[in-house]
Specification:
Largest sheet: none
Low-confidence stretches: 40-45
Structural class: mainly alpha
Strand content: under 5%
Helix content: over 70%
Mean pLDDT: 82
Length: about 220
């Protein structure tokens, strides 16, 4: 049998072990609670940020619709700077450059869109940005560069009707650049792959014109 001293020592060791275990549990539990609170705070903050930015984007678009383009541009730039990474900021970039095109600032739009496209973005924004870049470059009398942008837009677009529209745009730009073979390929792609879209008629007409020109 264990002596009284031995039993006492065992009890002390057991109590000490339990004390360490409880402290560990409290520390780990506290850390988990803190982590959960941080995640909750980030989630709530992110949700509010998204809501605020979306409201401001709606307001900026409303201003643009009234024709006050300078004020709309200022509001859109503020959204881009204040809410980076939000869907509203992404859409603000697209809307801002649409405003610039309407305002005759095609060169500025092209520079800004090219800078934007250097980053990583959702395909829907990549498609829209490339489509606008194509328009800006066409306005600036750079059809071959515009055609490449439209091609990139078609590649990023997620739905057939947009792919077809951008390919028709690419065909037009290639044709203006004197690249008949590339224009023919763009229109033929619409005819072969996207015959159910609204762009099929124009693609067929342009393709027939190009084909007739070779006869």
């Amino acid at each position: 049998m264990a002596t009284i001293a031995e039993r006492t020592k065992q009890q002390e060791e057991t109590a000490a072990w339990h004390g360490v275990s409880l402290r560990t549990i409290y520390i780990v539990g506290g850390a988990l609670v803190l982590a959960a609170l941080v995640i909750w705070g980030i989630t709530v903050s992110g949700r509010r940020k998204a809501e605020f930015s979306a409201r401001e984007l709606d307001q900026a678009r409303s201003v643009a619709e009234t024709g006050n383009l300078p004020l709309a541009s200022s509001s859109l730039q503020k959204i881009i700077q204040s809410y980076p990474g939000t869907p509203a900021a992404e859409e603000a970039v697209i809307t801002l450059n649409q405003v610039r095109l309407v305002n005759g600032q095609s060169e500025l739009a092209a520079v800004n869109l090219r800078e934007y496209l250097k980053g990583s973005h959702d395909p829907q924004y990549v498609a829209a940005a490339n489509g606008l870049l194509g328009a800006a470059l066409e306005n600036s009398k750079r059809p071959l560069e515009a055609a490449a942008a439209y091609r990139a837009a078609a590649g990023a677009a997620g739905v057939d009707y947009l792919k077809a529209e951008y390919l028709v745009d690419a065909g037009r730009a290639y044709r203006d650049a004197g690249k008949t073979a590339e224009a023919t390929a763009a229109y033929r792609e619409v005819v072969d792959k996207y015959a159910k879209t609204a762009s099929i008629t124009e693609a067929q007409v342009r393709l027939a014109e190009l084909t007739a020109g070779k006869m």
